[in-house]
Amino acid sequence: MKPKVFTNFEEFRKIKGQQLPVGNWYTISQEMITDFANATLDKQWIHIDQKRAAIESPFKSTIAHGFMSVAMISKLLEEAFSIKSVKMGLNYGLNKVRFPNPVPVNSQLRMISFVKDIEVIANNGLKVTFSCTIEIKRQEKPACVAEFIAAFFE
Predict the structure, then answer these.
(1) What CA–CA distance (Å, rounded) separates 128 from 61?
(2) Which domain covers residue 39, as residue numbers?
(3) Residue 96: which CATH number?
(4) Alpha-carbon distance 123 to 8, whole Å?
(5) Where are the alpha helices (DSSP H) in 18-140?
(6) In terms of pTM, does the model score above 0.90?
(7) Residue-wise over 7-37: b if at least 16 C-beta within 10 A, else e?
(8) How far apart, in whole angstroms, are the C-alpha atoms of residue 127 and residue 24?
(9) pLDDT, tens only, 36-91
């Protein structure tokens, strides 16, 4: 996937309501899941105990944390577009987050995103709301659906 590049905010504002480039597929490894468990202290067996999950889990494997897919949104958006004039970007928040489908280890994820809203904010900034769907390869239901909000400053 080739990211969409914008020169400045004026050019970027024209994409409101449109889809950004579809992301690349990323394999969710056990190492990634374990690292996330260690970083968040959420070490529930369904995430980190491969032997137990193979026997006791209805998914027959470990699964990624739902919040792991949310945590990937910033990086996936960064790969979908850039604004050359941006000096700094910040995560602003989330709306309507849902995890419709578990993500078994070694699943592949990618994101489809739309620019839902753009608002001017103080300090020469924009608050941008993205509609994000994180797909699981060969699955009908996505891993995550969320409205992600970021603040960008020129």
Answers:
(1) 37
(2) 4-153
(3) 3.10.129.10
(4) 15
(5) 30-40, 45-48, 50-56, 66-71, 73-80
(6) yes
(7) eebeebeebeeeebeebeebebeeeebbebb
(8) 25
(9) 999 999 999 999 999 999 999 999 999 999 999 999 999 999 999 999 999 999 99
Q: Which amino acid is at 125?
A: G
Q: How many domains does the chain have?
A: 1
Tokens 């958006």 identify what position? 77
Q: Report whether 109 contacts 143 (CB < 8 A).
A: yes
In the block, which residue shows the tokens 């928040």? 93
Only one residue has tokens 């970083």, namely 39
| Amino acid symbol at 53 | A
Residue with tokens 């004026």: 10
